[in-house]
Amino acid sequence: MTGFVSFVGSGPGDPDLLTLKAVKRLKAADAVLFDDLSAGPILAYARSGADLVGVGKRAGRVSPKQTHVSRLLVDYAATGARVVRLKSGDAGIFGRLEEELVALRTAGIEHEIVPGVPSACAAAAAAGIPLTRRLTARRVQFVTGHDASGALPRDIDLGPLADPGATTVVFMGRRTFPALAEALLDAGLAPETPALLAEAVGRPEQSLYRGTVAELAARLAGEQGTAPALILYGPLAETDSGDDFA
Questions:
Q1: Of 77, 114, 223, 243, which has the fewest beta carbons less than 10 angstroms from its beta carbon?
Q2: pLDDT mean by block of 10 residues, the chain; 246 residues
Q3: Is 57 a catalytic residue?
Q4: Where does the chain hold its CATH 3.40.1010.10 domain(s)?
Q5: Is residue 35 among the annotated active site residues?
Q6: Catalytic residue among 14, 35, 87, 90
Q7: How far is CA 165 from CA 104, 115, 192, 193, 195, in A?
Q8: Single pTM value for the model
């Protein structure tokens, strides 16, 4: 007899942004394997007595290997347990979801995916901006800021990323954005393109910095922040609301 695994997107970290289905799955789970950014108040929804297992991976920190996380999912489910794999944001966006799905399918374990609020959408909402605009921002694109080694991916396609008519969201790009910005400017992106740095979105320590691509690259080149961050740039990264986020 095998159990069941629910991959649950927990949103950016604010428990109020959990879906009703996410809360139901947490309350029914025998075990919750959670990422670092899904910890804290979100875990209060887990039922009393459930196993809570931290399996988060953060850049620059000692983290469990992906094969170990996948093995844990299989092992828990093999006991007949109801398992929640709690991932930050939406599980299908830069969450290494596919590797865990493959492990479950290979083991013959049933599973489901429960969508979560993508952190990119939460960051835009926190800044009071949309991600698209008729005529001037017809496309939204998500890109990872680092490869498995932590460096800027060498095979990154700069053409689409330098498109002035797109809203681009860079995940996990704090350390590599200065290098990415230099490459983007060489590819034709205007240095005055609006940019937004959103840190710890949905948490009490949330902060937003608004500037240009060139200014943000210079700012990040001189700091070593540790808060989870997203970078948005393009025509909508600037808002005329009058708010000062710097």
A1: 223
A2: 93 94 98 91 95 79 82 97 97 95 97 97 95 88 88 91 95 94 97 96 92 96 85 81 40
A3: yes
A4: 4-114
A5: yes
A6: 35
A7: 40, 28, 14, 11, 14
A8: 0.89
